[in-house]
Amino acid sequence: MKRFLRENGLSLAFGGLFLLTLAGQAVAGVADYNAQQATRQMPGIGLWQYVTSSTFAADVTENWQSEYLQFLLFILATVWLVQRGSPESKEVGKEGPLDDEQEQVGKHAEADSPGWATAGGLRTLVFSRSLGLLMGFIFLLSWGAQSVAGQASHNVQRLRDLEEPLTWGQYLVSSDFWNRTLQNWQSELLAVGSMAIFSVFLRQRGSSESKPVGAPHEVTAVDN
To answer: For the packed helices 175-201 and 54-80, what is the interaxial angle rounded to 10 degrees?
Structure first.
């Protein structure tokens, strides 16, 4: 168990923090929701009722979809685009897909390479793009969930205001949907771009996301 915890510390730590912050969001969210209900002189709801509501689902999924979009775009962009001096980038001049030898696929695979890296054909083709495919699938799934939950939540508000509810198609082109979406996209793109350029000139000792402290600024894709 001790070895398992040590070897999987990064994923376990972030998984635990995710659950804690999700629980915190639920507690804070139901308190805020009930405060708004009180101002309207309407009854509040319990925690379980809130976490199964469209309001909570919309708030959660709109953040999830933007995070996975960030990963998807970064994974695909780093195939073709480089940033001189960034540890997040390939070296300048090595843009584009690598050859089979560099990717260790087919006859160039090692003895302990994943089976699909040596299989060839469709399996190797899919496996060689599996990370981007998964990030893209989760993004579309969570974005779709956001649209459904957001529509339901938005229509609750419209009914309170004695307005006609929107269909799903109408909600997809509404200002509420795109305001929720774009405010998350812009923050994620800013964060990724900032990390790419700040890591050229700044260091974090011991981090795999940083170059060694003494590495020159212009050196790109340095392994610690």
So the answer is: 40
Instruction: Provide the pLDDT for residue 9.
Output: 93
pLDDT category of residue 174 using cuts at 50, 70 and 90: very high
CA–CA gap between residue 60 and residue 19 (Å, rounded): 12
What backbone torsions phi and psi does residue 189 show, to the nearest 5 degrees?
Answer: -65, -35
pLDDT of 222 reads: 62
Taken as a whole, the chain contains a residue count of 224
The whole-chain average pLDDT of the chain stands at: 91
State the amino acid at position 169 in one-letter form. G
Q: What value, to the nearest 5°, has the Cα angle with vertex 220 and ends 202 and 82?
A: 105
More confident residue, 161 or 177: 177
- d(CA 149, CA 61) in angstroms, rounded, equals 8
- Reading the block at residue 180, the tokens are 């929720």
What one-character DSSP code corresponds to residue 97?
Answer: P
Output phi, psi for 113, to 5 deg. Answer: -70, 150
Domain ranges of the chain: 1-52, 53-224
Q: What is the pTM of this model?
A: 0.87
For residues 47 and 30, is the Cβ–Cβ distance under 8 A?
Answer: yes
Give exposure, 73-98, as e/b (b: 16+ Cβ within 10 Å). bbbeebeeebbebbbbbbeeeeeeee
Let me know: does 84 contact 92? Beta carbons within 8 Å.
yes
